[in-house]
Amino acid sequence: MCQEHKPIGNPSHFEGTEQEKTTAHAVDGTFAQYTQGMKFFDPHVHMTSRTTDDYQALADAGVVALIEPAFWLGQPRTGLASFKDYFASLVGWERFRSSQFGIKHYCTIGLNSREANHEALAEQVMEILPLFLQKEGVVGVGEIGFDDQTAAEEKYYRAQLELAKEMNLPVQVHTPHRDKKKGTERSMAIALEHGIAPNMVIIDHNNEETVKSVLDQGFYAAFTIYPFTKMGNERMVEIVKQYGPERIMVNSAADWGISDPLAIPKTAALMKIKEVPDEHIRLVTYQNALDAFAQSGQIQESDFINGLEIDQTQKFNGNTVLRGGQAPRVNKDSLIIR
Ligand SMILES: [Zn+2]
Question: What tens digit of pLDDT does each residue of 79-123 get?
């Protein structure tokens, strides 16, 4: 199917309807009092779509590192150069922007499922992927997998699994919002068919329907906290209580749609309130994501555990995050949670 025929208003991470709205709001405005001293790792957040205010809020809330998966931009790209520039920005300008707020930025690189359906362009993208996958700070192939579960999506999912295997990189799998159970099972079966070890695969966007099978088969199970939709953080707390913390990780998947980049600290606060043990909170909001993606050999915890040095007077190719006349904020203390 051609991207142009997709309905509009159908972003990658927010597919909720009015009926699906739940009481997924976090502990509004007060979460920080429960997360004092905690550090967080968000393994799925599209910072390119977010503002410097978001970076500042993430840093203030204790997010010390994050992973930005390559995905689609809300509308289809029309040429290879757009992909190239986007991938380059994930390892370039965006990483720099993140560093200016003391947050270590990693990324995964891949051809997303929606744009896999534009086969002529997909072929060209496949050719440049190895180059970008070799770059420093690229911690996996992602986010790849199924959207509409078309033949073309399967073809490029398989091709990218092979790339991941060759390059010994973890795989970050986007599971479809429609027909999720089937799409998730299919994604796992195909990964196993390609001989990928399940512990090298992070199955994303899980829910109550998919989690058991994902964990039973040895995969990592990531959960995206969607505001007002299927996976609110109250349900997340129940899942951690039921399944324990092993191989489970929480992410925000914040992008250009309705989303909350502070989903992880807010969920941690809710877990704390609901008496989830501190160690379990640490595992699902920090350590498991670190362990999963550190299998790339590209993550050194010592690089960020005590915060990055922030110097907003630094430049990237002559550009800064400052505008004329702004005073730089050179302050490592901004990492302390208030
Ligand atoms: Zn995403």
Answer: 999 999 999 999 999 999 999 999 999 999 999 999 999 999 999
Q: How far is the CA of 224 from the centre of ligand 1 (A)?
A: 9
- Hunting for tokens 């809710």 — which residue is that? 270
**Would you state the torsion angle of the CA atoms of residues 168, 170, 172, 175, taken in this order, to the nearest 10 degrees?**
80
329 CA → ligand 1 middle, Å:
30
Peptide bond into 4 cis (omega under 30): no
11 contacts 254 by C-beta, under 8 angstroms:
no
In the numeric block, the tokens 């809020």 are attached to 57
What distance in angstroms lies between residue 45's CA and the mean position of ligand 1's atoms?
7
Distance 326 CA to ligand 1 centre (A): 32
Domains of the chain: 30-316 (3.20.20.140)
pLDDT for the residue numbered 315: 86
